[in-house]
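Q: Hi! New to this. If I give you a protein sequence and the SMILES for S-adenosylmethionine, can you show me the bound structure?
A: Yes, paste them in.
Q: Okay, here:
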Amino acid sequence: MRNTNKDFIFLLQMEELKIEITEDGSHTLYVPTLDEHYHSTHGALQESLHVYIEAGLRACEKDQIHLLEVGFGTGLNAFLSLLETESRGIKIIYHTVERYPLSREKVSALNYPSLIAPQHSDTFTLLHSSPWETPIEITSQFTLVKHCFDLSQPAQFDPQTEFDVIFYDAFAPDKQPKMWTLEIFEKIFSLCSCDAIFTTYCAKGEVRRTLQTAGFVVERLPGPPGKREMLRGRKE
Ligand SMILES: C[S@@+](CC[C@H](N)C(=O)[O-])C[C@H]1O[C@@H](n2cnc3c(N)ncnc32)[C@H](O)[C@@H]1O
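A: Thanks. Here is the predicted structure of the protein with S-adenosylmethionine bound:
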């Protein structure tokens, strides 16, 4: 992985991450220098459930789902998806891309397991401690493949699979515009199966139009608490 000066600055910023409590009692992380949170301050858990689980995962009717998440971060979306495999009796092969993995200390301070499913605390830890670039069977129904690279760099990602669901959870376009480009969305579109679902918390008109140009049919849906709208795309 090439370490550019810009990368170095970003890494420094990530080290300053602060844990904060959002309005539903669940944690999020705040990056002071970016003035950006990992989740909605109106409720991290509610946002993940609304945008990714309800509008994304539950909109896919397959029994075996190949999923791609952009931005593994706290692992909240992965944890909720794993729990969903048990309640729905489905299988998920969960690929996730992350350029700046969290430290073990930060992960162990997050309140997601105690808040959501204390009996699965070890599983939450395993999501973070499992090795990168290798498929790991976390449970018989949930396989995790973590990829550590910079998604905004060209030609770094060539999985031998087609994705049915995309969780697009990058930092906001005004904070990290390089993560919301036509080039990235075209690449993701080319990795999607027919009928694939792309879901994101972001509702910006410019993002909607870029997704449409990449090939997705995009709809605006009601957003989670504190946000009027979100976007969902489909490959038709
Ligand atoms: C809005 S946070 C959400 C993370 C996660 N989904 C969660 O629930 O905690 C965005 C994530 O994208 C990651 N990220 C930032 N730039 C990236 C890049 N160029 N390539 C891959 N991941 C990146 C950040 O480190 C962060 O974990």
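A: The longest strand covers residues 192-200. Let me know if you'd like me to explain how to read the tokens.
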